Amino acid sequence: MKKAEIIEGNLDYSNFKSEYLSDLIVKGDILSDINFKVKGSLIVEGNVEKVKIRCYGDVKISKSFFGQDTGFIHSKGSFYAYQIINGNVRADKDIVIGDIISNSNLIAKGKIVVYGRGMVVGGNLFAKDCIEGKECGTQSIVETNVHVGFDFILKKKYEILYNSYLDIIREIKFKKSAVKNIFDLSYKFSEIDQIMKNLELLKDKKRALITLLELIELNEKLLKINENLEKLKNMISKNENAYIKFERIFPGVNLNILDKAFFVDRLIEPEKEITKSELEKWLQ
């Protein structure tokens, strides 16, 4: 690995590069509307605004990530920050926050932990192993969704691919219907009329032939997608020991552990970790 690149002040549109080949250390803030990759780790001593960053190592933000809804950071290691406000983060390991997560979308292959005030308010959190903090939701009832138990990164890929699979099936059905309707017309005329109509139908028959070729191509795509779906299904791992741990959970929070879901409609102050078996008891 090359020597770390150091930015003494802020990183913004005037001085950023699209790719950094080593670790990157930013002494100031990373300002909005830039998009870049870091082949090593990223350390930011200030705040990070609305950006798109792909980092091959850990991401460490001393202050806050203000994503303004569309800002996105993907760390192939772990992600650390003091706060996340309206941000989107994906980490291939853990996400560790020093104080609060507010109205953000987070996915971790490992765990999500919030220290300090330990607040999670609004947004969607997904982690395979566990999600821990002090308070989830708020007294003013903000929808907050907490999910644990799956490798949600692979699960999301599976869902996207499955939707493509359904789209192709719908397209195949439509094209099959169109081809059938075109060819059926040739049997609805008398022999004399058929000679006259053939010229009119020639264009439609040509289109039908093109559609048939498209159907062959779509079926090939369908077979490949089906193979990939099976591979992904086998790769998606579960953690039967996954848990959620908060001292207070407010109304408006959706708790999801593997295939079990529980909507919180009153203040809950759990005395221990919430596991799948515990959630099943609440659902009875």
Number of strands: 20
Biggest pleated sheet: 20 strands, mixed
Helicity range: 25-40%
Q: Output mean pLDDT.
A: 89
Reading the helices and strands in chain order gives EEEEEEEEEEEEEEEEHHEEEEH
Summarize the structure.
By secondary structure, the chain is α/β, with parallel strands linked by helices. The protein has helices at 152-184, 191-235, 276-283, and strands at 5-7, 19-20, 24-26, 35-38, 42-44, 52-55, 59-66, 72-75, 79-85, 88-91, 95-108, 111-114, 119-127, 130-132, 135-136, 144-148, 243-245, 248-249, 253-257, 260-263.
Task: Kindly describe this structure.
- With 284 residues, the chain is α/β, with parallel strands linked by helices.
- The protein folds into two domains: 192 residues, no CATH class; 82 residues.
- Helix content is 30%, strand content 33%.
- The longest helix is centred in the last third of the chain and has 45 residues.
- It starts with a strand and ends with a helix.
- About 2% of the residues have low confidence.
Brief descriptors of the model:
2 domains; 284 residues; alpha/beta; 30% helix; 20-stranded mixed sheet; single chain; globular
Map the helices and strands.
Elements: E1 5-7, E2 19-20, E3 24-26, E4 35-38, E5 42-44, E6 52-55, E7 59-66, E8 72-75, E9 79-85, E10 88-91, E11 95-108, E12 111-114, E13 119-127, E14 130-132, E15 135-136, E16 144-148, H1 152-184, H2 191-235, E17 243-245, E18 248-249, E19 253-257, E20 260-263, H3 276-283
Parallel strand pairs: 1-3, 2-4, 3-5, 4-6, 5-7, 6-8, 7-9, 8-10, 9-11, 10-11, 11-12, 11-13, 12-14, 13-15, 13-16, 14-17, 15-18, 16-19
Antiparallel strand pairs: 19-20
Helix pairs in contact: 1-2
